[in-house]
Amino acid sequence: MCLAIPGKIVEFHEKHGVKMSKVDFGGITREACLEYLPDAELGDYVLVHVGFAISKVDEEEAARTYRCLEELDQLGEIQEETGDEVP
User: Fold this and answer.
1) Backbone angle region of 53, left / alpha / beta, with phi > 0 → left and psi within -120 to 50 → alpha
2) How far apart are CA 83 and CA 32, in angstroms?
3) What pLDDT digit, counting tens, does each position of 28-68 carry?
4) How far apart are the first and last CA of the chain?
5) What pTM was estimated for this model as a whole?
């Protein structure tokens, strides 16, 4: 199953002419493409799927999604990549 994971935009940068960001997923930071969300701002929560931010969500929805993913034991993939735990 493929999931979009919510995260908070913490930094903007450009890579080969493409608008990119660093997104914080509960303490784990990953790079994401922002080309689909040109109006995204620092501090926004976005859903990221295979490295692309595909929609914005509010902080409450992001927290609710993390709780559901944790209940379904679906946060392991993020944790396995880094060895870190997602709070």
Assistant:
1) beta
2) 20
3) 899 999 999 999 999 999 999 999 999 999 999 998 988 88
4) 22
5) 0.78
| Angle value at C-alpha 3, between 51 and 87, nearest 5 degrees | 85
Q: Which long-range contacts (CB under 8 A, 24 or more apart) does 21-24 make?
A: 21/53, 23/48, 23/53
* Radius of gyration (C-alpha) of the chain in whole angstroms: 12
pLDDT tens across 1-31, in order?
567 889 999 999 999 999 999 999 888 899 9
Give how far Cα 82 sits from Cα of 24, 25, 43, 47, 86, Å: 13, 12, 23, 20, 10
Q: Which helix (H) or strand (E) holds 43?
A: none
Residue 46 and residue 53 in contact, taking contact as beta carbons nearer than 8 Å: yes
